[in-house]
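Checklist before submission:
- one chain only
- standard amino acids only
- sequence pasted in full

Submission:
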Amino acid sequence: MARTRTRALSAAVTIAVLAGTGTANAAAPALREVMAIGNGQGGTVSFIDTATLENLGSINVVPDLQERLDAMNPVERVGYEAVNAAQGYRKLVDDMAVSPDGTTLYISRGNLADSVAFDIASKRMLWRHKTEGFKADHAALSADGKHFVVSATTASKSEVIDTATGRTAASFATGTYPHANDYSPDGTILYNSSIGITSLPRALNALKGSKAVTAVDAKTFRPLRTYSFQFGIRPAAFTRDNRTMYAQLSYLNGFVEYDLAAGRIARTVNMPLSDKAAAMKPDDYPQNSAHHGMAMNGSESKLCVAATISDYVSIVSRPGLTTDGTVRYDTDSLPYWTQTSGNGRHCFVSLAEKNQISVVDYATAREVARIPVGDFPQRQRLAGLTPQAVAALDPSDG
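Returned file contents:
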């Protein structure tokens, strides 16, 4: 009993910190720590209990899909089909986040070029925000839950949405094809990473546009600094001192350690290729991604790195950047995202083509669980759910 109670209390404190309160609020109901999984092609979000590793169920976040398609004007429909063709599939969920109080789910809906909010317990849509252009990409939620920041891919900007109203609160310019939005661990800086026009071949990299990390003030959204790169910036992880970024780059089978103060790549780590990957041409990499999944454990001593085209995930130790161990998956499993649990011990890996989540232990570099989810899981976000929200989920509907 004591061990169970300690785990529950630890989870409650973790969620309170994630919510930006710093301490647990005794008056608030305890939140259940979950990993929210965006099932890109299925149009659902699954919720995995990070302690028991059970799939609690999912929510359909495109109940209005046909309505949205019917409402598109000819230009919007052409843009929608063009994005589908460029990706090779229809992405209905790109990214998501749960409000700090555990009641509301926010989603950027990829090729539908919008963001929506749902009350999780009732599954009722609260608002819809139309994104400028033809695609709503990666997103981030501020620690206080007031702003949901979404990349408007074809508009080369990030839109800051007021979560109370669904209206635009601000926006800021980015590089070409903005991708990830990441708050610094202390919440003071918001980083946007752009990937350039992915449909162009590598030989035309110079024409892909600006590949940059745009740093803005997290409160005012005013620009602070722009870091330019030769290739697109894929998933990244930032240290708590705001001095170092670990990032995967387009076409790179590995990752870089980037000095944010000096504005330069400090080290490049090249990682092994599978036989299949070694035979591939760079233009055959999915959306230019060789590696796509970067996370860091709680003590910042280890990285969890997904080798997308080589079908493995490796645990890499800092500061030496040496590989502790590797979990290898079946060919074409497509590991496409990594995320760390609230206690910092486990790395959750999306196996997009397997419709599964692989859970890897940072300490042993071994897989400890494999969990079925929805169709084509990619983005994952740590969150907390109220008892009412959990009760509304159907475990048989993953």
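Reviewer check: The longest helix spans residues 2-18.
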